[in-house]
Structures are given as structure tokens and as C-alpha cells.
Amino acid sequence: MPERAALVTGGSSGIGFDIARALGEDGYALTISARKPDKLEEAARTLRDAGLEVHAVAANMAEEEDIKRVAREHRERYGRLDVLVNNAGVGIAGPIEQTDTKRLDIQLDVNLRAVYLMTRECIPLLKQAGAEHRRAHIINTASIAGKIPQPGLAAYSAAKAGVVALTQATIRELSNEGVRATALCPGFVATPMTEWIKEHVPESEMIQTSDIVAAVRFLLSCSPNCIVPEIQFVRPGDMP
């Protein structure tokens, strides 16, 4: 059994990949999950080539059985869980009146329902870690859209607002068990997911994944007496 272990969904690229790499560098054995097997295995190979311990599990976060399988494989592989990073997400832009139910459902399922289900499946292991060192942590990638809802992103904004609320409820349920939770609420981050906006917001002017990684490392360095419910990341001039 490793001394520390972490599970990162949406771990094949962008924010999730960089968080996973940082956790691996900091001594965590890793499970990473993403929907596309080829892309996930490429990410895992990159991490393994850097000397990190990585288990990759391809899964669709819209499917409950896939979520259960990821949690189960992590438990069977490592036997412990100190950090859960619910990072998988999807955004589909469009006005409410033109959004069909399928596009609504996939955003609610991946961005909110999956966070709830993965958290539920991982709570027993997180409680065990919390009883051991009182530093178990759930990190949920929300969005600044969950704090400042955006036109054209109504479903995404609503789901991410739900993640913020879920995070706060989780704190109230689990903090006495040594399990903390934080919602990360970034604006545009320079990742493949924001390719659609780069004509209007240059990548060089976006929040960087290194900013998110620095925040995660800060959270994990806090004493057991310190809970940070959320962190907002905004660009200069973007404050409401």
C-alpha cells in the first residue's frame, strides 16, 4: 500500500493531467480516468515515463457503472484514497431555447451528477484517510460560471453552481471526519477545452494550469484546522 494515493477524473489532458502530474511528483500513487482510452493511455505513459505510479481507467462519467468501476479499481489497486479530484467536465454552448434535452442531460450528468456519484463511492476510503491524518481532501473543479452564470452557458453554469453547493454540503457532512472539500472556480484556463474562445481571448491572457496546480498544492499543505470552501480564479478586468 502506498503512503498516499489520489484519484483524478478528466486526467488525460488540461487541468486534470497537470494536477495528476503534480500529485505524482509530490509522492501520490495515481489513478487517472478519462473517456477516450487512447488519449488516456498516452497521458498515463507520459506520467510513467516521468517515474510516477499510475493506474489508468477509461470511463464515461455519464455512466454510473463506469464511475463505480473507477472507484473500485482504485481501491483494489491501492487500498487507500487521500485526495479525490473530480475534474471531468463538458461544456456545450447555446441559448436555452435551442438546447435539446440530450445536450442538457450530458452536461448535468458529467458536470454535477458524476461529482456526486464519485464522491459517494469514495467516501469510505476518504474517511479512513481522514481518521489517519485528518488531511483527506475532495477537490471539485467547478467554474467561475457557477458563481457568475453566463448567457449561452445556462446548463453549464447551473451544473457548476450545483458543484459549488455540493462542495459546501460535503464539508458540512465530512469535515468532522477529517475530510475537507474545495470547489475550484476558474475563468478561462489555457487548455484544449477553451479552444473555442481563443480567437477572442488569447491563450497568453488566460489563467494557466500552473495557477490551478499551485492552488491544489496550497490546499493540501493547509493544516487540518483550515478549510477552504472555494477558490475563484479571475483574469484582470473580469471581476463583476
UniProtKB/TrEMBL annotation:
Family: Belongs to the short-chain dehydrogenases/reductases (SDR) family.
Cited InterPro entries: KR_dom, NAD(P)-bd_dom_sf, SDR, SDR_fam
Keyword set, alphabetical order: Oxidoreductase
Protein name as annotated: Short-chain dehydrogenase
Organism: Thermoleophilum album
The Ketoreductase domain, residue ranges: 4-196
A GO molecular-function descriptor: oxidoreductase activity
SUPFAM superfamilies, A to Z: NAD(P)-binding Rossmann-fold domains (SSF51735)
